[in-house]
């Protein structure tokens, strides 16, 4: 490849037009591959090329990160295509039914290449500068041939915050010259690493859920283009070679024969470069096409050709790292060359079949609108009593570009419950959410709603079930008949200050909106209470957890109390019920001891070495971006110096806490809890307290009577045999004690996304609020041994300790920020 690139540069230097474009090296002031470029330098280089080539480049700023770094896409096209680029974009959308009208003419292939979704997989943003430079090389016949029939969109860095976190650290510690010794400083990245974004989320798992700002803004632009191909560039461990398609099994069964065929075509084009240069690579291993929220699968389920490229290296590799197994040194320069080669091979592949790719894309959407895949032709979601959850689901549908409506009248139909997959006669009401499968995004709709995706191979890269009915805790149904929805009418919130000042305002408790409302009124110092028992008043029923906001205690606010409360309720989508008395017809009156005060807790979360950065990020984002409630972050190294008197709730995300939980530290912790503190121990943090004095959590004892496993095992089957102990992400029905404050707002069950084979005993002294029974498994892959272990197991438990509590959460209700069904439960743990 070095010879190929060198000849291109020599050839280009004779052309005065091309000579106006600075090379990456001349612009940066150092050889490409000698260090890591900061994001603003990469963005400036892209802008410079766009300014110098206005007839061939259009720059689209599409947002910014949480830390304020710009997000942008460069559209590179031939002068003729760029001159009509807006027509190309809209014609493409018209051809697939995403915009009304007919296209004005044929559409060229549209290829979108994304780089650096994982910040410390930093080679790809170095590579994109070389890719863009070469696409604008008018003396390169290959790239100019590509641009005749292909429009190229380049996203130089999906994750600028993570990239700069890595680049700033590495450039600060790298040796001069760099040290390739694997155990040297520059090859051991500190916590939390550069992989995630600001809130420490993995953006490559966020394509479908769009929890993070970067994902929302990128996919908003993606839906305005709907490219025919999307390539996602990554890195893996430094000992690995290079991965390109064909992908590994399992393939989702709804991936079309054309998409599978093109997966092989991509491999053919990539092999051409790698074989010629004697570069090592592998295919058909590790990287499958199943979980719908990756940069290869989500575009695939949107009809595109989606693929992942993985270069050996990653954050540990730095500029150069010695590889003992290979007997060589892996350099940043060689990694750049490899990603450059697959970028070019990808564009060559789609250009060679541009017309067919566009036709197959249109065919995909024609089928979606006229003969949608799957059994169900209409999806119905019951709305009454679940308005907040349905509203959250609608927000996701809007982000996806999925169309919906509502039932215009009550009706009965044969329907399949998407929770337990039982079929029967369903009764549905006016205003229930209706989603027709006859629409452009039909395939994506089907895949996101499917309760039990068919798995052709048990060895997978990620979770194996994700159905939206489970994720949102909704009663959703699939109908085999085609129904035409009425236009959806969103619920309006117009709480008014009553003419007569009420005794109290009541707010039901069943969605994240209600939790946001609580957080807001606590922030405004409004005093309130909560009913720990159901009650009736004024011929209306209210469940456990209902917020009771009395005038008593808020007298000092005067008329501002009513005005502010109704304003916040409208902004948080909460219905307030004013009442003129504290007397209830059943249940407990508002002055009883079962209607207890709620106060604003001071919350802290542990972070740092040993803590899962992803698990911490989920908690951090939940407080700052989802419920807007203050939280203090404390590094684990300061655990023994915690200001215990200033903390009401301490959250320990999943992690390894052995180094800090000394006997002295445990005694400090227990004293704080006995004095009224609340400890929330999540996943592996809960395991840290097993068999610790004073803590009630225990692992189940093994069954000595069971048959011993045969010691005879086949080495070649080791990976498959180990899968019998795994639960990579499957759905279980968690039984809940809905009378306990931890489960307020839920019925007697909760859909849990179980990702670890834990086996905790029920608490002998405490409250077993959530647990698995013999028949709790619902969907997704869970190994035979794993299913046995997970029977009769504690999932959520509360142990009283003096005036305080320990809340054990074996399951993470905040997983990736998309498991909406768990967010209220976690709020209960914090505030109740």
From TrEMBL:
Keyword Lipoprotein appears in the UniProt entry: no
Listed cofactors: Zn(2+)
Pfam families linked to this entry: Peptidase_M14 (PF00246)
Annotated segments matching region Disordered: 700-726
Molecular-function annotations in GO: metallocarboxypeptidase activity; zinc ion binding
Gene Ontology BP terms: proteolysis
TM region(s), chain numbering: none
Keywords: Hydrolase, Metalloprotease, Protease, Signal, Zinc
Residue stretches in coiled coil: none
GO CC annotations on file: extracellular space
Segments of skewed composition (Basic and acidic residues): 700-723
Keyword Lyase listed: no
Name used for this protein in its record: Peptidase M14
Lineage: Bacteria, Pseudomonadati, Bacteroidota, Cytophagia, Cytophagales
């Amino acid at each position: 490849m070095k010879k190929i690139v060198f000849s291109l540069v020599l050839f280009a230097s004779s052309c005065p037009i091309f000579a106006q474009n600075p090379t990456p090296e001349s612009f940066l002031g150092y050889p490409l591959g000698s260090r890591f470029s900061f994001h603003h330098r990469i963005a400036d280089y892209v802008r410079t090329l766009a300014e110098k080539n206005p007839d061939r480049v259009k720059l689209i700023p599409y947002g910014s990160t949480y830390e304020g770094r710009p997000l942008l896409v460069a559209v590179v096209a031939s002068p003729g295509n760029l001159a009509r680029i807006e027509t190309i974009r809209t014609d493409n959308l018209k051809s697939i039914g995403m915009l009304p009208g007919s296209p004005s003419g044929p559409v060229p292939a549209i290829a979108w290449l994304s780089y650096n979704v994982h910040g410390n997989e930093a080679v790809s943003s170095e590579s994109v500068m070389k890719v863009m430079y070469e696409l604008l090389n008018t003396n390169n016949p290959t790239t100019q041939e590509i641009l005749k029939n292909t429009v190229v969109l380049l996203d130089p860095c999906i994750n600028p915050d993570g990239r700069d976190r890595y680049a700033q650290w590495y450039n600060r510690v790298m040796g001069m010259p760099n040290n390739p010794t694997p155990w040297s400083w520059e090859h051991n990245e500190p916590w939390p690493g550069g992989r995630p974004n600001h809130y420490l989320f993995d953006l490559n798992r966020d394509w479908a859920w769009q929890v993070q700002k970067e994902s929302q803004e990128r996919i908003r632009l993606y839906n305005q283009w709907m490219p025919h191909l999307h390539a996602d560039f990554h890195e893996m461990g430094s000992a690995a070679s290079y991965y390109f398609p064909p992908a590994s099994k399992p393939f989702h069964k709804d991936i079309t024969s054309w998409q599978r065929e093109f997966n092989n075509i991509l491999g053919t084009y990539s092999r051409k470069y790698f074989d010629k240069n004697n570069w090592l690579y592998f295919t058909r291993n590790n990287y499958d096409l199943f979980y719908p929220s990756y940069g290869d699968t989500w575009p695939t389920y949107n009809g595109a050709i989606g693929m992942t490229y993985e270069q050996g290296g990653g954050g540990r590799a730095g500029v150069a790292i010695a590889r003992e197994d290979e007997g060589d040194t892996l350099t940043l320069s060689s990694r750049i060359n490899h990603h450059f080669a697959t970028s070019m091979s990808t564009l060559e592949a789609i250009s060679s079949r541009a017309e067919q790719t566009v036709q197959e894309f249109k065919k995909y959407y024609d089928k979606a609108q006229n003969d949608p895949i799957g059994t169900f032709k209409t999806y119905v979601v019951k709305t009454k009593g679940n308005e907040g959850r349905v509203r959250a689901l609608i927000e996701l549908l809007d982000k996806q570009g999925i169309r919906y409506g509502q039932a215009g009248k009550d009706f009965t139909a044969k329907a399949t419950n998407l929770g337990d997959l039982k079929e029967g006669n369903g009764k549905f009401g006016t205003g229930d959410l209706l989603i027709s499968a006859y629409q452009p995004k039909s395939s994506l709709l089907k895949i996101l709603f499917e309760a039990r995706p068919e798995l052709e191979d048990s060895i997978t890269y990620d979770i194996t079930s994700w159905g939206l009915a489970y994720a949102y805790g909704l009663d959703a149904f699939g109908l085999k008949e085609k129904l035409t929805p009425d236009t959806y009418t969103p619920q309006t919130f117009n709480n008014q200050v009553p003419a007569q000042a009420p005794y109290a305002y009541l707010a039901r408790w069943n969605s994240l909106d209600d939790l946001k409302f609580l957080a807001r009124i606590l922030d405004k110092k409004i005093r309130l209470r909560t009913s720990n028992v159901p009650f009736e008043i004024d011929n209306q029923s209210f469940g456990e957890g209902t917020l009771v906001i009395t005038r008593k205690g808020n007298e000092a606010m005067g008329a501002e109390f009513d005005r502010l409360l109704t304003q916040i309720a409208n902004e948080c989508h909460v219905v307030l019920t004013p009442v003129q008395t504290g007397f209830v017809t059943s249940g407990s009156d508002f002055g009883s001891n079962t209607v207890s005060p709620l106060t604003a807790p001071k919350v802290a979360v542990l972070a740092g070495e040993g803590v899962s950065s992803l698990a911490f990020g989920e908690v951090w984002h939940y407080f700052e971006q989802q419920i807007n409630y203050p939280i203090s972050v404390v590094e684990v190294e300061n655990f023994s110096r915690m200001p215990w008197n200033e903390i009401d709730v301490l959250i320990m995300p999943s992690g390894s806490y052995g180094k800090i939980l000394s006997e002295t530290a445990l005694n400090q912790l227990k004293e704080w809890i006995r004095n009224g503190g609340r400890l929330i121990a999540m996943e592996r943090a809960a395991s840290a307290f097993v068999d610790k004095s004073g803590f009630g959590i225990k692992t189940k004892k093994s069954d000595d009577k069971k048959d011993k496993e045969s010691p005879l095992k086949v080495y070649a089957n080791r990976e498959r045999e180990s899968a019998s102990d795994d639960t990579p992400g499957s759905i279980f029905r968690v039984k809940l004690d809905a009378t306990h404050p931890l489960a307020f707002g839920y019925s007697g069950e909760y859909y849990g996304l179980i990702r670890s084979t834990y086996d905790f005993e029920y608490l002998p002294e405490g409250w077993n609020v959530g647990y698995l029974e013999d028949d709790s498994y619902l969907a997704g892959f869970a190994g035979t041994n794993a299913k046995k272990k997970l029977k009769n197991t504690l999932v959520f438990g509360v142990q009283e300790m003096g005036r305080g509590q320990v809340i054990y959460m074996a399951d993470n209700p905040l997983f990736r920020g998309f498991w909406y069904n768990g967010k209220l439960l976690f709020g209960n743990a914090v505030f109740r």
